[in-house]
Design brief:
145 residues, alpha/beta, Rossmann fold, five-stranded parallel beta sheet
Length: 145
């Protein structure tokens, strides 16, 4: 059986209970839209988040579940994102990875997230191998704890 990228919408009550023990990591795309963007600018932000998400999804099929993107969040909304990460964990995930095409997210502003996959600057491009290592290292640190 080939395991495809797992999205939240691919589960129902009949299969979730059997699969949940194997799917311990939630990927939470955060586009960082603020509401004042033009349609092309909004599309670029959404696409950028997808560019950072795709390498993680493809590398870890069968262990991660991609949640719906959290679109309208920006400076000053960190507590809301932190609460969302906590609720996702309460729902049964051990890890939450915040994935964004915008720089600025880290553990100081969202301590409930376990990892941030996002650029350091606006000009950074996703490095699939580096993203794979980041997620693998998160799991390894947890196994040692």
């Amino acid at each position: 059986m080939v395991v495809e990228t797992m999205r939240f919408s691919e589960f129902d009550e009949s299969n979730w209970g059997d699969l949940q023990p194997y799917l311990d990591t939630a990927l939470l795309p955060v586009t960082g839209l603020l509401g004042g963007e033009s349609p092309p600018a909004a599309a670029e932000l959404v696409g950028s988040a997808g560019d950072w998400l795709a390498p993680i999804e493809s590398a870890f099929k069968g262990r991660t579940v991609t949640y719906p993107a959290h679109h309208y969040i920006g400076p000053g909304d960190e507590a809301s994102l932190d609460a969302l990460c906590s609720r996702i964990k309460t729902g049964g995930f051990k890890f939450v990875v915040v994935v964004s095409g915008r720089p600025g997210w880290d553990e100081t502003c969202v301590p409930s997230a376990d990892l941030f996959a996002n650029p350091a600057t606006d000009d950074d491009a996703p490095d699939p191998e580096a993203l794979r290592r980041l997620v693998s290292d998160m799991w390894k640190r947890s196994a040692k704890a």
